[in-house]
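Re-running the complex after MR caught last week's input typo. The corrected sequence lines follow. Everything else is unchanged.
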Amino acid sequence: MHIKSPSPSNGSLLKIAVEELTKQGCSVTVSDLYAMQFEPRATRNDIVGHLHNSEAFNYGVETWEAYKRGCLSEDLVEEQKKVREADLLIFQFPLFWFNMPAILKGWMDRVLVQGFAYDFSKIYDGGLLQDKLSLFSFTTGVSQEIYSKEGIGGDIRYVLWPMQHGIMHFCGVKVLEPHICYAPENVSEEKRKEMLAAWTQRLKTLWKEEPINCSPEWYFK
Amino acid sequence: MHIKSPSPSNGSLLKIAVEELTKQGCSVTVSDLYAMQFEPRATRNDIVGHLHNSEAFNYGVETWEAYKRGCLSEDLVEEQKKVREADLLIFQFPLFWFNMPAILKGWMDRVLVQGFAYDFSKIYDGGLLQDKLSLFSFTTGVSQEIYSKEGIGGDIRYVLWPMQHGIMHFCGVKVLEPHICYAPENVSEEKRKEMLAAWTQRLKTLWKEEPINCSPEWYFK
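Corrected-run output:
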């Protein structure tokens, strides 16, 4: 089976990040979800062995219990290990339907389980992944004008709320400004080169950046 | 392999909808994505036979071309047939990370391809699925107070923007008020029964409802 990721330009942006950060002396680990054929479906198979309550299966409860017992499936353990060791998580993807593609949403659904990423009162600023930074880097199909307050797509920040606030902030992860390449497939070769150069340039001073103030005001002001 | 859907209460809500709508004389078709082991990953495998451009794989372009040639994979053709025949699409799911679970996001990513659900200037009110209604019915893990303007989760409508506006409205599908069961697992058995009864009750007059005004004002007022 031969699987290619949906958008070629995301490959270039990934490559740039790996090269630039490696050059800086960072240790970079890539989870290429398509290449890994990463499973996006949250099912009973994520728990090895017996269930906590096999009468009424509840994914949240079962993965939490399995995490504590060390009984999560191997692919999840592997991804959690990468997250645990990381200072910065960069999510690189093409925007699909105002959101991340299902394969990446599945990574969020399955990897960030209770006990690992958050716990009872350990959410938002108290989340379990407080020592980490995140950055959503993505390409869109349409122009920046569309994703504005006056555009039919609305402010691009509306799209970022569930990802940045609902997932990363929820787990305590700090969020750097998103990096958005608007409609790279509709622009000139020169403009595309500029986009790639801008990403390289930003990465050079990334570690000096301050996280955004992840409050409703940032998104809906 | 035995796969169960993540939340039991969504099963009850689905069952109620099927029973009530069938009783009304509607012909009801269910796509139980977990039971179908629905594939959420958007890959080259969604195109049967040769690619339009095998040098630089672009999922959007390839599925659009494959749709026109009648070369989409069988599972997608099957789902598109169901959508084509439907007057109303009800999406029943547990909210995962401020969004639908990956398996349902994958349904959106793979089924609603260009040519079928929208086309060049045929988007939003001009979308290709204008004759249809949709309804997002979901359960949450936390209470209604959390999902309010003052709550840490923000207004629940912020969460609805990418789904209702970014997907359904984009394809021309009209949107009925969402149906939300807040934290069914944290409430009393009696309150749960009330929730189920409220859903049954709403379904009785569903066809008389007017779609919401799917504009930024509805979401961010």
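None of the earlier attempt is carried over here. Residues 2-220 of chain A form a domain with the Rossmann fold fold (CATH 3.40.50.360). Chain A has one domain: 2-220.
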